[in-house]
Amino acid sequence: MNDGAVGEQYVRIAAAEERVPFGTAFVSGVLCNVLVCLAIWMSFAGRSVMDKAIAVVLPIAAFVAAGFEHSVANMYFLPMGMLLKSAHPHVAGADGITIMGSISNLVPVVLGNLVGGSGLVALVYYLTAGRGRRGDP
């Protein structure tokens, strides 16, 4: 598409993702999932489909604009970059897109997403709002 510009962009994104250091990927994954969970909770507050759709836009746009790491998005971009790197070898870092590079990105991002979603969001919500509702101690 667009004379290969779309594929070239996939390769650029995959190459950049694989160069993110472990700590940065982890923290970025935590912050990303906090925003994703916020979007989900905000959608629960909406009464109509339009309310729910509008509520999701701001947190998701914030995580995309900030460049945070989400494991599901990376599970798309990294294999796509591997598939297209031979068609775009001129892209800087294209030769470095590997399975091990993808794994080295996905491990900290998945861990960060887990900490962000279950630790910082769900646990805090449970501790502040979940106790004592249904006879919980």
List keywords for this structure.
137 residues; mainly alpha; Glycerol uptake facilitator protein; 5 helices; 0% strand; flat
What is the compact description of this entry?
It is built from five helices and no strands. The protein is mostly helical.
Task: Please give the structural blueprint.
Layout: H1 5-18, H2 22-45, H3 49-66, H4 71-84, H5 99-130
Walkthrough of the structure:
The protein contains five helices and no strands. It has a single domain (2-130), classed as Up-down Bundle (Glycerol uptake facilitator protein). By secondary structure, it is an all-alpha fold. The longest helix has 32 residues, at 99-130. The model has no long low-confidence stretch (mean pLDDT 90). Helix 4 packs antiparallel against helix 5 (99-130).
- 3D shape: flat
Looking at how many chains there are and whether they match, the oligomeric state comes to: single chain
Kindly state the number of beta strands. Answer: 0
The CATH architecture designation is Up-down Bundle
Q: Which H/E pattern describes the elements?
A: HHHHH
Q: Report Rg.
A: 18 Å
Largest sheet: none
CATH class: Mainly Alpha
Q: Which structural class should the secondary elements be placed in?
A: mainly alpha
CATH superfamily: Glycerol uptake facilitator protein
- Helix percentage: over 70%
Give the end-to-end Cα distance, rounded to a whole number of Å: 58 Å
Low-pLDDT stretches are none
Proportion of strand residues: under 5%
CATH level 3 topology: Glycerol uptake facilitator protein
How many domains, as an integer?
A: 1
Overall pLDDT metric: 90
**Helix count?**
5
